[in-house]
Request: fold
Amino acid sequence: DKSKPAKDLKALKPAEVKFKVRAYCYGASKIKDEKALGGFGGSKNFATKITKPDRFKKGELSLVAVPSELRAFAKVRGFALYLANRTGETVAISASDSRLSILREARDKDGKWKPIEYAPSSWCGNSYHRLLLADGLRWEFKAPEYAGPFETEMRFALTGVAGRKDKPIYSNVFKG
Reply:
């Protein structure tokens, strides 16, 4: 929670999990998806105006992890993750019940990128829709900090962006 003092956030411990965590990046758009069937689960995480444009590349849809910006993620320590649109156009992104397919990956001991989170599927066709992110707007998500047996490099991967043929957009790499 942004309202908590930074010292309280530092007191939170990282998440210790022994399994893949379910994707947690939910978004909401004020632009209606005219192709959606309706009936999908919603979110109150509306996109807001980009306030630090130098953080995001002009002409791109950027996924930026900022581990130094502490956030509470449930009862564990987390950090800020942003998805910002500076493409000059509105971007359509596939969602399931307003959950974007943003998954964290980590390098294993052999240096290969492996997903450590998963996106659940839905049995209901109404769950699937698009979220529309207008140019100049960004979503902020809270991501958990993880504890584990060794330090490695991590990144986030976004799939489901219209016009990219499932080519992921990757965030910056960070230690975890």
In short: The first strand starts at residue 21 and ends at 22. The chain has a mean pLDDT of 88. DSSP finds one helix and 13 strands in the chain.
